[in-house]
Amino acid sequence: MDTTLLRQLNDDVWHPFRLAYGRLDASAFLDLYSPDLIRAGGPAKQVFGFSEYADQTERWFAELADRGSSVSITFRFVECVAANDIASERGIFQLESTRADGDGRTFYGRFHTYSRRTDGRWRICVDYDTDERSATLEEEFLAAAGVDDVDAFKE
């Protein structure tokens, strides 16, 4: 495994993803996705393209901001495979949500993304997530590799 590609993915996708998500910056967040995006899964078990995902994301971020709520996301990985200009990454995310009154909740879910590098930059082309088998997700999250632990996927 070429860990250089994984570091580039981190720089182009995963680090900006966390920042944009935490800032509720829909424009910066959506810029991490290919216009040909396939988005599937989620709590509603839906599948749709970029424009529907953009509408959904913009509405959700605006609602959170209007309520004075905040959200942060952290990723840990169980598989990272990259070669040339394509990549597949699987892992577990931790979503921490805090209401304006300070009440907070933590959620976990599994994700699987496929990314492609075009014009020298990585973007997510397929994004799938699920909360199946949620009883073990916190344990699995803690056991998985951190976003910058690219050496865990070296052969």
TrEMBL record:
Chain ranges of the DUF4440 domain: 20-124
Domain of life of the organism encoding this protein: Bacteria
One matching Pfam family: DUF4440
UniProt-listed InterPro entries: DUF4440 (IPR027843), NTF2-like_dom_sf (IPR032710)
Protein name: Nuclear transport factor 2 family protein
